[in-house]
Amino acid sequence: MKTLLLGNEAAARGLYEAGCRFVSAYPGTPSTEIPESAAKYDEIYAEWAPNEKVAMEASIGASIGGARAFCSMKHVGLNVAADPLFTVSYTGVNGGLVIAVADDQGMHSSQNEQDSRHYAIAAKLPMLEPSDSGECLEYMKLAFDLSEGYDAPVLFRTCTRVAHSQSIVELSDRIERDLKPYEKNPAKYVMMPGNAKNRHPIVEERTQKLIKFAETSGINRIEMGDASVGYVTAGICYQYLRECLPDASILKLGMVNPLPVELIKEFASKVGKLIVVEELDPVIETHLRANGIRVDGGKDLFGLCGELSQNKIRNALGMSTAPFIDFGETVPPRPPTLCPGCPHRGLFYTLGKMGLMVSGDIGCYTLGSLPPLTAMDTTVCMGASVSGLHGFNTVRGAESAKKSVAVIGDSTFMHSGITGLVDIVYNKGISTVLILDNSITGMTGHQQNPTTGKTIKGEPAPSVSLEKLCEAIGVKRVRVVDPYALNELKAMLTEELAAEEPSVIIARRPCILLPEVKTAPALSIDCDACKGCRQCMTIGCPAISFADKKASIDPTLCVGCELCIQMCKFGAIQKKEAN
Fold first, then answer.
1. What CATH class does 343-508 carry?
2. Cβ count near 458 (within 10 Å)
3. What is the pLDDT of residue 37?
4. What's the pLDDT tens digit per position in 369-409?
5. How far is the C-alpha of 189 from the C-alpha of 195, rounded, in Å?
6. Closest listed residue to residue 52, CA positions, set 28, 34, 20
7. 539 in helix, strand or coil?
8. What pLDDT score was predicted for residue 336?
9. In this structure, what are the phi and psi dihedrals at residue 361, rounded to the nearest 5 degrees?
10. Domain chopping of the chain, boundaries
């Protein structure tokens, strides 16, 4: 049967058809839908892990236990999981193990633009890269076969455009796989130095075998056309090239590590010029040059930053592009903003008014750095807000600690904020940490986490108490506040900042977009009472606008959170009675 699937959905279908039994992941755009889709198959056990390292380690354990296992993450999540990644390259597998990593060229929802192919090279692991949904499904099944055939985890690299675009796939039945027997084998699985030394030569031998596979298997294929110029490419860039140059000669690489040498030399001998088309770093280009294969164009044409596109490729190759259509009006800018009624808005307004240094983290609340709130100073990576604040205050002293806070979400705190808080307590810091508990993993689309009381399948589960966890770490001052209550929030912040010991404030209110959250009737403006002071505009609510020296509220956006009522000194913002 044929159907249309997103790349991520097709990858999950590949897990199903390949007989995968175990899936563990941490949500991260653009990889999130793979485990979400896999969880819909009853034959697959699926879970959200607290972070990517745990997800990979759990999957390694399932593989050693004899099952086909899978974990997924976005590119920066692979940084978190790098420790087990490099070692499992040495141990190899029992049941097949596939590790999906979704790169985010163009940084649509990421703090950097790293190229995960470098991990495959450094860890000496095979990496497959599909170019559409059909290949997502087929390559996933192939990845498990390669994993078991070569005793190696297989990296499965996608990108935003492949993950979130649809194409036709051919569905097949699931092939059930019995658990492989587990046999005690410390020489293979216990990576103490003496054993690891013996495993390294095995890794190098495996790489040579995989190179032979890359040369002859057909996953890397030559498509001959106009031989004046040949193009070497992989992944989504293949689709762009085919659209721009339907008659071109292309060497399409489906395995991007290890790369073939003889196949590329054969292709190069058949074309007049050779151009490498790849996004981000010159991984393929460097491989060609290192093996003495001429390259007539590559990063000098396409650059090192951002996504490619059909028009970017046409421009780089000196081809004409479609004319730009001017509709006669300038489209107004629409910067990202916190949703109307977001529980984070009042908190960042308060932090800004208090003039505090705010050590920030990854999540919806990162938008608190933007005008008009402009209330976040730093954002580095998951969990860095807490440990970063400790370092900041340690070098700047007690007065700094009275004027600075860390903010971190509930899911992010579970991911990697706990150890930072332990660092503060253990090393006698006096920093104040705010856990923004909106009862969900918000930024990636409302995934469950260990504090929500539900699994990835929506089933009831034990929930971690943030209060008890912080107390168990050794924090004596743990308080809870409703972030809509601005006066109470400010008073609590003032008290905790003055305390010369670690403190945690849990700002708890569910995300306004959760289906169980009931909104109130929209508010309205009494134009006669409105003085045009613009104070209500300082919270940056999308429902509030200003024209003709008066504020107005869009009833289609307002959720009745009443935050703006606390801004107005003239009583101009009024509640509507519920019907």
1. alpha beta
2. 9
3. 98
4. 999 999 999 999 999 999 999 999 999 999 999 999 999 99
5. 9
6. 28
7. helix
8. 85
9. -145, -175
10. 2-216, 221-316, 343-508, 524-574
* Distance, CA of 15 to CA of 44 (rounded, Å): 8
Homologous superfamily in CATH for domain 2-216:
Thiamin diphosphate (ThDP)-binding fold, Pyr/PP domains (3.40.50.970)
Q: How far apart are CA 107 and CA 305, in angstroms?
A: 10
- What is the Cα 139 distance to its own chain's centre? 22
With 60 as the cut, is the pLDDT of residue 276 above it?
A: yes
How many Cα atoms sit within 13 Å of 249 on the Cβ side? 19
- Cα-to-chain-centroid distance, residue 124: 23
DSSP-assigned letters across all residues of 376-408: --B--STTHHHHHHHHHHHHH-HHHHTTEEEEE
- Is 237 in contact with 159 (CB distance < 8 Å)? no
What is the dotted CATH code of the domain comprising 524-574?
3.30.70.20
Amino acid at 77: G
In angstroms, the CA 60 to CA 89 distance is 11
Q: What does the alpha-carbon distance between residue 516 and residue 416 come to, in Å, rounded to a whole number?
A: 28
Give start and end residues of each alpha helix (H) in 166-292.
186-189, 193-216, 236-244, 262-270, 283-290
* Stretch (H or E) spanning 337: none
- Two domains, one topology: 2-216 and 524-574: no
Say how many C-beta atoms besides its own lie within 10 A of residue 209's C-beta: 13
How many whole angstroms separate alpha carbon 467 and alpha carbon 472?
9
pLDDT tens per residue across span 54-69: 999 999 999 999 999 9
The amino acid at 468: K
HSE-up of 29 (CA within 13 Å, CB side)?
19
Q: Distance between CA 359 and CA 380 in Å, rounded?
A: 9
Query: What's the rounded Cα separation, in Å, for the pair 337 and 433?
Result: 23
Angle of CA points 534, 535, 537, to nearest 5°: 70
> Closest Cα partner for 348 from 371, 385, 367, 373?
373
Q: Is the dihedral of CA 314, 316, 317, 321 positive or negative?
A: positive
Return the structure tokens found at 540.
């940056």
Contact 561, 521 (CB under 8 A): no
| Nearest-10 crossing angle of helices 262-270, 193-216 | 30
d(CA 565, CA 579): 21
Q: Which two tokens stand for residue 159?
A: 């990108």
What is the DSSP-derived secondary structure letter of residue 525?
E
pLDDT of residue 327: 66
Strand 524-525 vs strand 573-574: parallel, antiparallel, or unpaired? antiparallel
Query: If one looks up domain 221-316 in CATH, what number appears?
Result: 3.40.50.920
Q: How far is CA 133 from CA 16, 52, 171, in A?
A: 15, 24, 11
**Residues 6+ away with beta carbon under 8 Å from 129:** 139, 157, 158, 234, 235, 253, 254, 255, 256
481-528 pLDDT tens trace: 999 999 999 999 999 999 999 999 999 999 999 999 999 999 999 999
Looking at the chain, the number of H-run helices and the number of E-run strands are: 22, 22
